[in-house]
Specification:
The radius of gyration is 34 Å and the shape is elongated. The termini are far apart. The strands form 6 sheets. The protein has a 4-stranded mixed beta sheet. Strands 1-9-8 form a 3-stranded mixed beta sheet. The chain has a two-stranded antiparallel ribbon with strand order 2-7. Helices cover 21% and strands 28% of the residues. The chain has 4 domains: 1-107, DnaJ domain (Helix Hairpins); 113-139 and 206-257, HSP40/DNAj peptide-binding domain, CATH 2.60.260.20; 262-334, HSP40/DNAj peptide-binding domain, CATH 2.60.260.20; 336-367, no CATH class. Helix 2 (17-30) packs antiparallel against helix 3 (39-52). It is of the alpha+beta class. It has helices spanning 5-9, 17-30, 39-52, 55-64, 90-98, 126-131, 276-281, 340-352; strands spanning 118-124, 133-144, 159-161, 170-177, 180-187, 196-198, 210-221, 230-233, 249-255, 262-264, 267-275, 283-289, 292-298, 307-310, 326-333. The longest helix has 14 residues, at 17-30. The structure holds zinc ion (2 copies).
């Protein structure tokens, strides 16, 4: 059976490009050999991403299916191999045809490599999300090793010829394919293609050139963010290798709920209890909004459940001068207990409205 790249990345077949990237980033970090992950698993994740992360290769892979070469090899003029024996592994076929281009380890990586991206979650208060602010996020990042300045050599260590590749920087392996034996050259894992290694690796980073470091970062939060908003902090991810640039940091926001306000997008919702005379005659009251206390005009004759909208009294929209609204849902309270005087007044109201009442015998209404 061929490898199911979707399963490897833990995503569904209709995953978006973004979903694929996110899943890859997360898994790659989790299984990175530098972080003690399994190298084979890491290779598999990379392989899956190099196919699914490339629109054309993904389409080809989707067409080909994960069950094996049954439907012909779409594109590239390789149709008609469905009856060829000996190829049960799609990965092998890809590797044979494309010279191992699907495996990251086979790509020469002697030069600088950009650091990986990282993700963090930052929980902020409701009002900070509305008006923005500055918060601190604490995160463990791979930083350049201070002892060896990132080159992986122990202080004063001699640089010697790599014994794994005899100084060529490459290791070769033979593979059977439909074209006969194919020799694939890949970059030496020991020296990363340089052909030379330090006699002794740096004791602090074991030669990796990077060490884990707990880092506190200030995050500027723009007004209007909400749970799920992701801020990109360029160059704040993991340090690069061999002088490569830092990766990026993606900070996903998690907003605490408010006891006073309910937020729907950029609108704020609250409810307001009013008395019958206010509903009938109208009134002007003060209500609390995220912008402070504001006047609310209750129009005469309002019914329970009606909403009153205070324009531009909600949440500022991210990167815009627009502001959402504050929406008040009015609830007219019906008194459950009446004083003698109130009872008389209601009776009078009824008679004025020419209503002949048969008062309820239930306790609490007309006692
Ligand atoms: Zn070091
Ligand atoms: Zn080597």
């Amino acid at each position: 059976m061929a490898k199911d790249y979707y399963q490897i990345l833990g995503i569904s077949k209709d995953a978006s490009v973004d979903d694929i990237k996110k899943a890859y980033r997360k898994l790659a970090m989790q299984h990175h050999p530098d972080q003690g992950g399994d190298a084979e698993k890491f290779k598999e994740i990379n392989e899956a991403y190099q196919v699914l992360g490339d629109a054309q290769k993904r389409q080809q892979y989707d067409q080909f299916g994960s069950a094996g070469p049954g439907g012909g090899f779409g594109g590239g003029g390789f149709e008609g191999f469905s009856n060829m024996g000996g190829f049960s592994d799609l990965g092998d076929i890809f590797e044979s045809f494309f010279g191992g281009g699907f495996s990251q380890q086979s790509q020469p990586q002697t030069g600088p490599v950009r650091g990986e991206d990282e993700e963090a979650v930052l929980t902020v208060d409701f009002m900070t999300a509305v008006f923005g602010g500055e918060e601190q996020v604490e995160i463990v990042l791979l930083d350049q090793c201070a002892t060896c300045k990132g080159d992986g050599a122990a202080p004063g260590a001699k640089i010697v010829t790599c014994s794994t590749c005899s100084g060529t920087g490459q290791v070769r392996r033979n593979q059977r394919s439909i074209f006969g034996n194919v020799t694939t050259a890949s970059v030496c894992h020991e020296c990363h293609g340089k052909g030379k290694i330090p006699e002794k690796y740096c004791p602090d980073c074991a030669g990796h050139g990077r060490v884990k470091k707990s880092t506190k970062l200030k995050v500027k939060i723009p007004a209007g963010i909400d749970t799920g908003t992701t801020l990109k902090l360029q160059g704040k991810g993991h340090a690069g290798l061999r002088g490569g640039p830092h990766g990026d940091l993606y900070v996903r926001m998690n907003v605490r709920a408010s006891r006073k306000f309910e937020r729907h997008g950029y609108d704020i919702h609250t409810s307001l209890d009013i008395q019958i005379p206010q509903a009938v005659l109208g009134d002007e009251v003060e209500i609390e909004t995220v912008h402070g206390v504001k006047k609310l005009v209750i129009p005469a004759g309002i019914e329970s459940g009606k909403k009153i909208r205070l324009a531009r009294s909600g949440v500022p929209k991210i990167g815009s001068s627009e502001v959402g609204d504050h929406i008040v849902t009015v609830r007219v309270l019906i008194p459950k207990k009446l004083s003698r005087k109130e009872q008389e007044l209601f009776m009078e109201l009824a008679s004025e409205a020419k209503i002949t009442l048969t008062p309820s015998k239930k306790k609490g209404l007309f006692s």
